[in-house]
Amino acid sequence: MGALPVQHLIDQYFGGNPTTDEVRQLNEILVESDEARGEFWHLAEQHYQIWTAVNTLPASDLSDNPSTTAASTASSRGLSAGFGGHVADTIQHSMPLTLLAALVITGASAVGLLGWLSIGLWQMASVSTKAKAPAVMRPEIVARVIQCVDCEWEPTSQAVAPGMSLRAGRRLELASGFIECQYQNGTRIILEGPTEFQFLSPLACRLSLGKLTARVNAKGTGFTVETPLATVVDLGTEFGVQVASSQAINLLVYEGQVQLARVDGAANEPLRWVRYEAGQGARLTKNSKIVHSAGISDKHFTRTLAQSKQSTVAEIVAYHNLPGAPGGQAEFSGSYGMDFRVNRPIEVTRLGVFDSDQDGLKQTITAELWSRDDRGTINVPEDDRGQEKIVSLRFTPEEPGTLVASSRFLPLSEPLRLEPGAYTIVAHGYGRGEHAGNYTRPPKQFRRLNDGGQAISFVGRSRYGNPAGQFPLVTVPHTPVNQFSAGTFAFQVVEPDKAIVPAPERSTEKTEIDLLP
Length: 517
Prior knowledge:
Layout: H1 3-15, H2 20-32, H3 34-55, H4 59-63, H5 66-94, H6 97-105, H7 111-125, H8 127-130, E1 141-153, E2 165-167, E3 171-183, E4 188-201, E5 204-215, E6 224-226, E7 230-243, E8 248-262, E9 274-277, E10 281-285, E11 291-292, E12 316-317, E13 319-321, E14 335-342, E15 346-354, E16 365-373, E17 385-395, E18 402-404, E19 407-418, E20 421-428, E21 437-438, E22 447-449, E23 456-458, E24 463-465, E25 474-475, E26 484-485, E27 487-493
Parallel strand pairs: 5-6
Antiparallel strand pairs: 1-2, 1-3, 3-4, 4-5, 5-7, 6-7, 7-8, 8-9, 8-10, 10-11, 12-27, 13-22, 14-20, 14-23, 14-24, 15-19, 15-27, 16-17, 16-20, 18-19, 21-26, 24-25
């Protein structure tokens, strides 16, 4: 069947108006056609992103701006009605296993999107009876940043840093420099700026501009790079792909094999795959034939990044309070402490303290870093004792440090290396003039734990104690490891390519990697 009927059937399905016969035809086509499944998945991703964007808009975005209220509300309701109105019937009568099987055949592994198609839409259909919006599913984490070298970011792009997790759909726009990322399956990629790149799924990405080098292991076989002119699929290999500003594609295979098919031909033209082996390459430009073995230099792509003093390795903030966190409520003037373990060497570069309401410090706050004796019982914090106050910094109203999100930071005179072991970050000096945060204020959604790719682990429970300046011994039961918004620190991971020391049993508290520029 030609592309137009397939497109019509897919449009009808996502538009909310398919007939039973149209759904049957779509099922049959999706099972039989790789191209149709690819188009269906592509459109499903777009609809998922639109739905997520609409349903995550703050209420103020829909009500406070008179110029957007009507349109935004109508868009949101229309999208919900268009999808939700036919989903219940589709799930119950018109979505046999062949449709879900067809999605699986595509190699689609974006759990959030697949769950949204099969479950999230059913929840939307129930809104009219339950008067409750469905929970928004966040895209899955697909990769982590390993290192950045001399990175300059486009104004429209949010910077990333080593240790940061990257979710499906995340875009990177690098003006210059290099960034190395590792997928969850072990596949490593190096991007060279200027580049425009997007993570699509655990096995796919989109390169719109720039250079990419990929080294794929056995678990990542099938790794796919989409470009404006061609699709490259790995067969277990190391290869480089370049998308030039002139809309030219360069491919060079270093090891193993890849296959390439151009995608800018006639819509109804089947994909024609060409296989390339180690030492072979190709060049493809718009409206021209593929030129094989184009003589691309082995030095055309960057295959490794040697970490050096010039590397722009951004700091990871361990206990992070997001921008706009409301003021704390704790007036206790003694010490607040939170425990962590170092699994592989790190360098602490700055200490920080929570700034209630981000309006400057009203009194002197002291941050301290302690080594801790956990008595060999990692998850029994009651018997822990402080060993040594390693370093401390005073934050005064006159010299409060640099405000980053909702905390203030002062640099250490030189980076402090922490070897694997048990430690506690402590802060004291809070009171009526300057409140610390305590569990419910600021709310937990403003607090994040950043482990630098498991370089550290958050263990035990939060603790407090008197007098100020001594190790806090009182632990707080039944609360998360980051109950308090008080002391924090920024660090860098040392030698990130070395094997991680087996981490101890970790807290059940969910950790996320959210870094700051």
